[in-house]
Amino acid sequence: MAGPGGAALDELSRNFTYGAPGAGNGSLSGAWYRRNQFHLYGVLLAVLGNLVISISLNIQKYSHLQAAARQEHARPPVRSALWWGGALLMALGEAGNFAAYGLAPVTLVAPLGCMSVTGSAFISVMFLKENLRASDVLGMTLAFAGSYLLVNFAPNISQAISGRTVKNYFVGWQFLVYVISEILIFCVLLYFYKRKGMTHIAILLTLVALLASLTVISVKAVSGMITFSVTDKIQLTYPIFYIMLIIMIASCAFQVKFLSQATKLYSTVAVVPVNHILFTTSAIIAGIIFYKEFLGAAFLAMFIYFFGCSLSFLGVFLVTRHRGKEHLPQSYIDLGTIPGKQTLDKIQPDSNGLSRGTLPDGSDSTKSPSGEKKEV
Predict the structure, then answer these.
(1) Parallel/antiparallel/unpaired status of strands 346-347 and 333-334
(2) CB distance 101 to 109 below 8 Å
(3) Less Cβ crowding at N or C end of the chain, within 10 Å?
(4) What is the DSSP letter of 325?
(5) Residue 252, CB-side half-sphere exposure with 13 Å CA sphere
(6) Does the keyword Transmembrane apply (predicted)?
(7) What digits encode the pLDDT tens for the residues 186-235?
(8) Would you tell me how many other CB atoms lie within 10 Å of the CB of residue 367?
């Protein structure tokens, strides 16, 4: 009788039996392809959707750079056709991700979000002529290697997401315990954020991640029920469909609110990797608890799956590290640091004028040694 180690090795052998005759459990066999056809479609949609999102982000960034070069700061970006093209591509990419959740497990689709981060960095280097750093190459390599492990060792469960299935999961004790715990944590963090004025990045992005778990659950339910309605029997008559739709819209709206607050207070270099890690972790936990996606999975396959997640997290961190640091348009000069100067005023250099700077009161003047003001 084979022990747990033997079961894990059997699982690995099934994953790597390419073109084996007979039962056809190999990764390239016809039976494996038929069994995992929808999963492959989901992976393809998720990868393409994230790549389209990365293209849209760079198009919008390029439109802002063009406006800055033409000194059109006062012109809103919504009046730019290029910006609208990027927005439409963003919607198309998110639609691809939405459809992917209806075809593949949450634990497979959610971690593939690293493709949008690494893809955006690659496109920035190729088309926006940003510098290619060694950390970018290493980060992209790690992210791709992690994604490969995720696709190969993510749970291969095939479950039809019907209205009855979602309702049974929704009232199950596992989800009730999970959602009650999540609500308690959310309320505690919200208390510190609202009442105590604590705006640490960990608090804000944890609030986003807690909402994201509900978003992922509801998106999977809505997308899965639509897919089931197209392929089998109509599911849109179930009340649970509209309950999940409301949860999806509400959780997305509050996510945007807290994420917007985080990006106002902190640079995107800090927000992007932390948000990706917390979002993916919460999505995986939601998939495991609500949809039971790791039920019956071998320990070794789970270990390699989470190792792939760690590689993708590290890749995202390396790609975003020190990228796009925000600088002031014009630096301030503190004359108090110059020996022999008594003033502590900060003078802002005026690159558009003939003077050397402006004083805090806005006057464009300097003082003579006798104390009289002289216009420059």
Answers:
(1) antiparallel
(2) yes
(3) N
(4) -
(5) 12
(6) yes
(7) 999 999 998 888 889 999 999 999 999 999 999 999 999 999 998 888 88
(8) 11
Task: Say if residue 306 is exposed, middle or buried (CB neighbours under 10 Å; 0-12, 13-18, 19+).
Answer: middle
DSSP H/E element including 308: helix 299-320
Comparing CA positions, the residue from 271, 266, 285, 278 lying closest to residue 313 is: 278
- Domain-wise residue ranges, the chain: 13-157+299-326, 159-292, 331-376
Here the tokens at position 70 are 């033409």
For 25, 120, 132, 317, the CA distances from 136, given in Å and listed in that order, are: 37, 11, 6, 10
Give the Cα separation of 97 and 104 in Å (integer): 10
pTM of the model: 0.74
Tens-place pLDDT, residues 2-17: 444 444 444 444 443 3
Contact (CB, 8 A) for 211 and 253? no
φ/ψ (deg, to 5) at 11: -65, -45
Q: How would DSSP label each residue in 149-215?
A: HHHHHS--------HHHHHHHHTSHHHHHHHHHHHHHHHHHHHHHHTS----HHHHHHHHHHHHHHH
Under-50 pLDDT residues of the chain: 1-29, 326-371, 373-376
Total residue count of the chain as it appears in this document: 376
Using alpha carbons, select from 313, 37, 52, 95 the residue that is nearest to residue 219: 95
* Coarse DSSP helix, strand, coil percentages of the chain, rounded to the nearest 5 percent: 70, 5, 30
Contacts of 368 (CB under 8 A, 6+ apart): 374
Consecutive H or E run containing 374: strand 373-375
- Three-state secondary-structure class, residue 358: strand
What are the CA-CA distances from residue 348 to residues 73, 150, 326, 334, 364 (Å)? 20, 52, 18, 9, 11
